[in-house]
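User: I'm preparing a small set of examples for a lab meeting where we compare how different chains pack in three dimensions. I only have the primary sequence for this one, and I'd like the structure in token form so I can line it up with the others. Please keep the answer compact; I'll paste it straight into my notes.
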Amino acid sequence: MAGGEPLSLLLLLFALVSLQDVKRKQPWRSRPSSGPTVFMVVMEDDPVISHKSSQKEVMRGEEAQKYKQTTRTKHDIFLDSLLPVGSYKKLYSYTHLINGFALQAKSKETVKILSGAKGVRFIQEDVKMSKMTTYTPRFIGANGVWPLLGGAEKSGAGVVIGMVDTGIDPSNPSFLSTSDQTKPPPSFKGTCQSGDRFPPDSCNGKIVGARWFGRAGQASGEFNATINYASPYDPDGHGSHTASIAAGNFHTPAISRGYNFGHASGVAPGAHLAIYKAAYSFGGYMSDIIAAVDQAVEDGVNIISLSLAPNSITSGPASFLNLLETQLLLATKAGISVVQAAGNGGPDANSIVSFSPWITSVAASTTDRKYNKTIITGNGKVFSCGGLSTSTPGETMYPLALADDVSNGNLTDGSSPSSCQDPNVFIRSLVQGKVIICMFASSSYYGSDYFVGIADTIQKIGAAGVIITDRSSKDVDIEYQPTFPTTIPSAIVINGADADALLDYYDNNLVRDADGTVTTFGATVRILEGRRASYTKEAPVVADFSSRGPDVDNAQMQASDVLKPNVMAPGHQIWGAWSPTSDSMAEFQGESYALLSGTSMATPHVAGVMALIRQRHPKWSPAMVMSAIMTTADITDRSGRPLTARRDEGGAVERATPFDMGAGSVNAARAVDPGLVFDAGYKDYLQFLCAVPGVDDGAVRRAVGAACPSPSRPRRWGSDLNTPSVTVASLVGSRRVDRRVTSVGAENETYMAYVQAPDGVAVRVSPETFAVAPGATATLRIVLNTTAPGNAFSFGEVVLKGDKKHTVRIPLAVYPAAVLGA
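Assistant: Understood. Below is the structure token output for the 822-residue chain.
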């Protein structure tokens, strides 16, 4: 801390992005602190990873353990000598990636004392965390890689994916040990913490390590051991779901509500899972997440998958300098690939919540798998809708009845029985054998409990089935209608013009007496089977909820020279493992598999692809792995049409840009053999941080404990970082951007550069043709010139085509601000 002045705290709210958040999008806004009492303090002393032994190597083994214990003791002595007894409680000592601790302070005076203490480098206030596959491995081409790696069961073998999430259910079939399961690499030193619902044999070859972190949750009073479990067990379901997508066992039946929806496989079925439970049904705290990441790197994971991200920035010069972002930079320095959810704040621009260039940020797309539900009425009309349920028995037409016409009148609270939430208001003799029409208002938000309540009511009253409709709503794409398994024939949701036609048919075939009571139900209907999937071979579409760029570098929403998201993966209606004890989603309570949507689901797809790459290329750096995924991603469908993005739920689609999909839709088959890669290391990222507008050398020193390296030329903003993309948030006149590529092909290859220039920008690449040998590097000079200033970003690409069939695509996102001299 310079001059003894109080540190400016970077306050971030993080969210574990899941299905619920898709329906409750959080706007990007600053939130005032509610006065949390937990703080994270970083000390000046070195952590294990940057402390050098006498042999000038990173400490390992017994030496590292001794240093860790010494560090913990120093923290205790420091606090005891500085703070009054009873004024604080230390929750964690951080020792591996950072040297520091988390403590619960009884008063603000405690923090004031710490902020002026010698040896304290940085203080950040803790913040609350809130919660943000049967087919998708084939959809992204992973099954094409499996034969190269010894078959599906061995794909990812020897690679450990660290899942920082809500834990795991070790009894789920996706995580049981198999005869093909190999041992984790000798470098992995994780352990298995047993506890409630997590017996000692839970770590079985698939799960190779499991720990839980909840001290901040306990300090807050929100942690309830009866509900949240003091063990790595997953009471929520989210962590099991993401883990199964990344590395669930091959060909496991995904059974829900007694129906087999297919055979689920993780993207890397042979990879190992290390579990770091740090989030709960109530959410979580950043100090617990920091502890989990620190332990994961110390244990020796190869990949960290984070389906969590910040929701807002309240202060500070740069989003890249908050404690979790800089800790993940240190994880990258240690050789760990980090993949993170981009957020569920779409389709608004600037809603991205995973900022830093050393992290692979993942957007969510749809797939071409559809569940089509059909209704046939007695007058020959056919309606399409949602609903994963069986058909009405046989080919019989069943009488149709509006809930209001087969009930005893309004409920005690004055609401209409048409909501179908109370079975006691229905006249049993009138409902049996009929398909009941239940109503809801799409103008109001309804959680999944509402629709589950309808299904439960229909089952209790003995009706033949249910149609849920809303006459006032607009037409919504079937793909975005509520979809969950039910054991009764159900159709969800008929709306817009279809609702009008169905209800008109019903009204026109009724006979009522003088009192208005229905005496004859003349309308009839059949509900057809809806649990069998169909595959349209359509292109992936960016999901409406998926967060969009451009990336920002501070709370003033200034665009940065960093492309975010990096890549897109399936995140809409994804099957995965679930915890039967979870009550977070009523429609899957008691089930072992669930269907969820969110960038949380997209993220582990990319973690699985990283495992396949790391198995085939174990010496590649995290930047090389990210590059391979980005430069080989798909930007067109199978017919060559550009990929598209949804701008609202069920609305029209438009051509997708790099701010929607990053470099494109992940293609695992090509990512393992990219031809060329763009590499970057810790020093490159430090140079990047030191060039961030508003950031000085002191801020970087406080954040990461290292000084800014001397630049080889004047520091410029992030467009100089050696990434497989070029983003320029303000192009005034001309800018030269250099990129260095490394050949990872098996033989000499000659590449030619092709340019699609963004509107208002001229692009020149030199050399236009170059040859590169295996392991050799080449430097590309990309010169951008504003030709027509505009008021928005425009997009293009540089494509390097090799004569050995490799294609390397570099997205361009440029804001042509002004022409020099104009």
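A couple of notes for your slides: The chain has four domains: 37-125, 130-366+537-677, 370-535, 725-818. The first helix runs from residue 19 to 23.

User: Perfect, thanks.
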